[in-house]
Amino acid sequence: MLNRIFRSLNSLALSLLWVGIFFGLSGITSNRLNAEDQVVLTTLHVSPKLAQADCHLLEFPDGSKVLIDVGLGVDAPRSIIVDYFKKRQITFLDLVIISHCHKDHYGELLHLIKSGVKVGRVIVNVPDPIFNDTETFAGGYDHRDVQTTLNLLAQQKIPTETPTTGQRLWNGSRDGHFPALLEVVYLYDGVHGPNGKGDVNDTSIIVRLSYGKTRVLFTGDLNYKLGKYLADNANIYDLRADILKVPHHGAEGLAPNEFFDKVAPKVAIVSAPKTLWFSLRDKRARDYLNHLKAKTYVSGLDNDIIVTIFKKYYTVKTISPKPQVKQEPK
Predict the structure, then answer these.
(1) What three-state secondary structure class fits 89?
(2) Contact residues for 179 (Cβ-Cβ < 8 A; gap 6+)
(3) Residue 204 burial (CB < 10 Å; 0-12/13-18/19+)?
(4) Helices marked H in the chain — which ranges?
(5) What is the spatial distance between Cα 146 and Cα 163, in angstroms, rounded to a whole number?
(6) Residues 200-233: pLDDT tens digits?
(7) Beta-carbon count within 10 A of 189 CB
(8) 3-state SS of 14-45?
(9) For tag attachment on the chain, is the N or C end more exposed, with fewer CB atoms within 10 Å?
(10) Cα–Cα distance list, 174 to 38, 39, 115, 165, 315 (Å)
(11) What does the CA dihedral 120, 125, 128, 132 come to, rounded to 10 degrees?
(12) Residues 266-315: pLDDT tens digits?
């Protein structure tokens, strides 16, 4: 009798043990999935003084990493981006997207590579040769420097590619069932297109990130003329986004207000020093984003800006004391 009772108790204990292990492992797996099932966008503060620049790191659920622009203010400490990568122990970038060929958007790429960071592929839109030697102002298009950069990338056996409108650049989904996509909304060479001749800023590759219910639009230095063309043809080029990387550091000459209307962002991210943001050059962008009631973050005020995108919502936090903001996508 006692033996039967002990056997029954042992069987029950073993069953409970297996149930505990099963649910324990399920819980561990669930926590792991919840921890990884997100896209993190970090806009690096690369304009600590007077000069502007862009650098945005995307980290995907599958562990892949994409850098959109790798610029640094010409008056900024040279080590800002390299030090950030070393601190984070990031040694490989699956993809680098150079929005356009101005040094404040690509100038630190070779420095980053020489520091030991490996790069899988580079997306770049080299302007039509008609622009060679046309921008003699500081920070203008330097086609010789661009060619030197491309040659050094080739020597490192890093492939480069010019994409096309509508092309999917990256899918960072972890399981294949929930896409984390980077796609080209629009690009052209600055000359041959329905918009006619523009300038080097208008060769910016317009890229959209889509994950869950959230969209982020990266616009490089999109200028007025092309911005108006895109706004006028928003039925063809879907511009809607919850988060907008404001073009041209917010400076005048950027896309028109109609473009902002079509995007209708809830959050705006501006890569600009605070002196530029509070200047007359950025007044239209400041005023119109306020009119749209878009929560605006400026790298020169907020330092690094970190957007964490989950399937149904996203959060924004900064290194500065600004409170964390949770947003539900439109």
Answers:
(1) coil
(2) 171, 173, 210, 211
(3) buried
(4) 2-36, 80-88, 103-106, 109-114, 143-155, 224-232, 257-263, 274-277, 283-291, 299-302
(5) 17
(6) 999 999 999 999 999 999 999 999 999 999 999 9
(7) 18
(8) HHHHHHHHHHHHHHHHHHHHHHHCCEEEEECC
(9) N
(10) 10, 11, 29, 25, 20
(11) -70
(12) 999 999 999 999 999 999 999 999 999 999 999 999 999 999 999 999 99
Q: How far apart are CA 214 and CA 202, in angstroms?
A: 26
- 317 pairs with which residues across the strands? 306
Two tokens at 291? 């009119």
* Residue 130 burial (C-beta neighbours within 10 Å; 0-12, 13-18, 19+): exposed
DSSP string of 163-178, one letter each residue: --TT-EEEE--SSSSS
Whose structure tokens read 């003329």?
225
Give the predicted TM-score (pTM) of the model: 0.87
String of DSSP letters for 184-206: EEE---SSSSTT----GGGG--E
Contact 81, 54 (CB under 8 A): no
